[in-house]
Amino acid sequence: MELTGIGATNEHARLIIDSYVRLTGKKLSEGGDALPGKEFEWLYHLPFVVLSHGRDPDPVLNFGNLTAQNLWEMDWRTLRSRHRD
Questions:
Q1: Per-residue pLDDT of the chain (85 residues; tens, 9 = 90+)
Q2: What ranges do the domains of the chain cover?
Q3: Three-state DSSP class for 10?
Q4: What's the pTM?
């Protein structure tokens, strides 16, 4: 399955990574940093759940990494479409 949407971009992954550092003062993973141009792939394969959502009044997930998908037994499309009309 091809991963699509705003959450499937290196730019969005970089926003998640940078926001975490800015808000917590910590790196997202002690195992190292994402290489430039590989942010999405790095974030998608982290061994812990990473989620993000939009700024809508009733936010819908726009990113859920593979660990999250496995935990909730949903694929990329299903995880990102929950609660949509």
A1: 678 888 899 999 999 999 999 999 999 998 888 999 999 999 999 999 999 998 988 888 999 999 999 999 999 988 888 654 4
A2: 6-80
A3: helix
A4: 0.87
65, 49 in Cβ contact below 8 A?
yes
Is the CA virtual torsion 63, 64, 66, 67 positive or negative?
positive
- In angstroms, the Cα distances linking 53 to 33, 56, 57 are 22, 8, 11
Quote the tokens at residue 83: 């609660």
CA distances from 22 to 10, 26, 73 (A): 18, 8, 31
For tokens 């593979």, what's the residue?
66
Q: DSSP code of 82?
A: T
How many angstroms separate the CA atoms of 49 and 29, rounded? 12
